[in-house]
């Protein structure tokens, strides 16, 4: 303990700036999060004092770098309650983790005529790899429908998941609708059928306590940069017995035991899957991010975001002409709110908000099938994190109101 949410904002130097002469209100956390000084310092310190390649050298710096890299792996293991650090593989991020599962594990369990099940709310990185696997194997890619308010339709899931289902892959939390999916329930459904549960945790691990064993997820993917860590580092969690079945996607240095002219033998998990020099500073930075999150506590972070949504949602709902996607009850949502204002293009809306210093995203959010389901081309999206405040919520609401007046009357 020691850190509180009240003081956390001061730990993020980037937030202390003006954008277009207004204090920066950063609400694009679903895309990427800002870094506390502790994470920045840890990365700098590593390069200043300890930089060396891991696992190979016997010299002091190599041992220090290896110790820090492996300590980061244990932090990740404990953070998501994996049974062993051998179940934590460092990757570039969620996209790479999901591609490895679909590309390497997928073909070992999916055959022609089998079914792979996802939902309409998936991010492209939890959709396109499965499309590719379906194409290569002759399997069918099936979609679980959503309820009118955007929540996963559990009855539809029970219909779709059946004896042919080999893999179900779902977002734990949506990057657009702000809903949390009942992963544990779905995992039980697919396990009864002898299939595997893959989870895209990119929008969950940064925002709520996650226990991969309690969820009974077979694989779980997430990214460091969405949880205060650096870009270019992410995690593939897998149950050890399943990771053992995964062929490395990359062969080369760091992952071998013995190399002969025609045959090689490989290291044990998790190193067998981490070919080449890994993102050492990235992993160490992610470890520092986890330390920071732990000091505040994931339950506190979740409650804080919940309070921001409880404040933002009614205020946004009160703006005439503003459509909010996903459940209309704050208690059913995470800190992601996608919206459109009248017939305004969301890019124009986001540009107008930026004039007020408010950073939101506009576009399809890498979820084009979901946009089709919502019957829109794009949306604007505000997304909160632990350093956002009630003032940020008020600034968002005021900026949307100002944009509305500007586009209606030509005055800003
Ligand atoms: N899944 C979801 C739900 C996401 O929000 C994102 C990031 N927008 C990703 C996957 C992909 O993450 P990354 O780009 O870090 O690989």
From TrEMBL:
<protein>
    <recommendedName>
        <fullName>cysteine desulfurase</fullName>
        <ecNumber>2.8.1.7</ecNumber>
    </recommendedName>
</protein>
<dbReference type="InterPro" id="IPR000192">
    <property type="entry name" value="Aminotrans_V_dom"/>
</dbReference>
<keyword id="KW-0663">Pyridoxal phosphate</keyword>
<dbReference type="GO" id="GO:0031071">
    <property type="term" value="F:cysteine desulfurase activity"/>
</dbReference>
<comment type="similarity">
    <text>Belongs to the class-V pyridoxal-phosphate-dependent aminotransferase family. Csd subfamily.</text>
</comment>
<dbReference type="InterPro" id="IPR015422">
    <property type="entry name" value="PyrdxlP-dep_Trfase_small"/>
</dbReference>
<keyword id="KW-0808">Transferase</keyword>
<dbReference type="GO" id="GO:0016829">
    <property type="term" value="F:lyase activity"/>
</dbReference>
<dbReference type="InterPro" id="IPR016454">
    <property type="entry name" value="Cysteine_dSase"/>
</dbReference>
<feature type="domain" description="Aminotransferase class V">
    <location>
        <begin position="25"/>
        <end position="396"/>
    </location>
</feature>
<dbReference type="InterPro" id="IPR015424">
    <property type="entry name" value="PyrdxlP-dep_Trfase"/>
</dbReference>
<dbReference type="InterPro" id="IPR010970">
    <property type="entry name" value="Cys_dSase_SufS"/>
</dbReference>
<dbReference type="GO" id="GO:0006534">
    <property type="term" value="P:cysteine metabolic process"/>
</dbReference>
<dbReference type="GO" id="GO:0030170">
    <property type="term" value="F:pyridoxal phosphate binding"/>
</dbReference>
<dbReference type="GO" id="GO:0008483">
    <property type="term" value="F:transaminase activity"/>
</dbReference>
<keyword id="KW-0456">Lyase</keyword>
<dbReference type="InterPro" id="IPR015421">
    <property type="entry name" value="PyrdxlP-dep_Trfase_major"/>
</dbReference>
<dbReference type="Pfam" id="PF00266">
    <property type="entry name" value="Aminotran_5"/>
</dbReference>
<keyword id="KW-0032">Aminotransferase</keyword>
């Amino acid at each position: 303990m020691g850190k509180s949410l009240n003081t956390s904002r001061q730990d993020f130097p980037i937030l202390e700036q003006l954008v277009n002469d207004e204090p920066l209100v950063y609400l694009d956390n679903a895309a990427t999060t800002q870094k506390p000084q502790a994470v920045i310092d840890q990365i700098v310190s590593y390069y200043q004092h300890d930089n060396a390649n891991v696992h190979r050298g016997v010299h002091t710096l190599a041992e220090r770098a290896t110790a820090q890299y492996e300590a980061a792996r244990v932090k990740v293991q404990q953070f998501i309650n994996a049974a062993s650090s051998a179940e934590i593989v460092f990757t570039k991020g969620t996209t790479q983790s999901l591609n490895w599962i679909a590309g390497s594990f997928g073909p070992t369990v999916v055959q022609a005529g089998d079914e792979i099940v996802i939902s309409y709310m998936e991010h492209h990185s939890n959709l396109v790899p499965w499309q590719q696997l379906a194409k290569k194997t002759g399997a069918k890619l099936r979609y679980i429908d959503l309820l009118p308010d955007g929540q996963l339709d559990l009855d539809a899931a029970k219909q779709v998941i059946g004896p042919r289902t080999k893999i179900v892959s779902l977002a734990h939390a949506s990057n657009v609708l702000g809903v949390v999916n009942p992963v544990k329930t779905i995992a039980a459904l697919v396990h009864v059928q002898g299939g595997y549960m893959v989870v895209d945790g990119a929008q969950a691990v940064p925002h709520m306590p996650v226990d991969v064993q309690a969820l009974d997820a077979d694989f779980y993917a997430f990214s460091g940069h969405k949880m205060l860590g650096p870009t270019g580092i992410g995690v593939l969690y897998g149950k050890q017995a399943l990771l053992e079945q995964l062929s490395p996607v990359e062969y080369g240095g760091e992952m071998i035991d013995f190399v002969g002219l025609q045959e090689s033998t490989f290291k044990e998990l998790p190193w067998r899957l981490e070919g080449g020099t890994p993102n050492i500073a990235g992993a160490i930075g992610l470890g520092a991010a986890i330390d920071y999150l732990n000091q505040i506590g994931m339950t506190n972070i979740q409650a804080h975001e919940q309070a921001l949504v409880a404040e933002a949602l009614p205020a946004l709902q009160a703006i005439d002409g503003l459509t909010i996607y996903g459940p209309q009850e704050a208690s059913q949502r995470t800190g992601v709110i996608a919206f459109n204002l009248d017939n305004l293009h969301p890019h124009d809306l986001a540009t107008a908000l930026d004039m007020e210093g408010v950073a939101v995203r506009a576009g399809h959010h890498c979820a084009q099938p979901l946009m089709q389901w919502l019957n829109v081309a794009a949306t604007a999206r505000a997304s909160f994190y632990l350093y956002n405040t009630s003032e940020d919520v008020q600034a968002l609401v005021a900026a949307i109101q100002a944009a509305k007046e500007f586009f209606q009357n030509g005055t800003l």
